[in-house]
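Morning, I've got a small favour to ask if you have a moment. I'm working through a protein record and want to make sense of it properly. The fold is given in discrete form, as structure tokens running alongside the sequence. Can you walk me through what the tokens say about the fold? Thanks so much in advance, here it is:
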Amino acid sequence: MAENRDLRASLLRIGPQLPGLSLDGVLLDGRKKATMCAELGLHFEIVEAQTLTEACSVLWSRHPSRALELAGKRNVLELAQLCGATPTAIAKQLAADKPKKSHHKRILNDAPFSQLKTAPKMKRVILVIEPELHAYAREAAAQIGHRNFSKLARDALWEKIALLVPNAPQFQPRRVQAPNGARAHRRRTG
């Protein structure tokens, strides 16, 4: 409410400084300004972007998260080319927009993955691999500081999923511990 009041006061005092942005007749940036300018009787210019690249690059300078949302699910290099930014800047923004770890269930919108939820436990799956591959994987995991190769295998699977499954989520669910950070203790019976 206070931000709307501040925006209204700014529009009355100095007028709209940046034009709105639309693509294919859909207003992408400046929705609040457009309605307030109409209420106040001020002229508000709206620039029509001709291509998705133009819209993403203009939107990147104003609202990077919205630019990435408009671009859709693509790899980092394609996003950088669309938004006119460096791959490093894109990666930093994706990391900043990444959902935070929480112990609440995460429900995705009407995607094929809508049934995916963050579970309190990891799922144990038996993976059959060759002995040579197991030895190389353990050696690679040790070189990057892991005691076993489970994390290495999970990361490799998520990379492959991101390449092959177009609607796959961009986050990588991690192991979720109890809220206090401790692992559950097993009771001994007998």
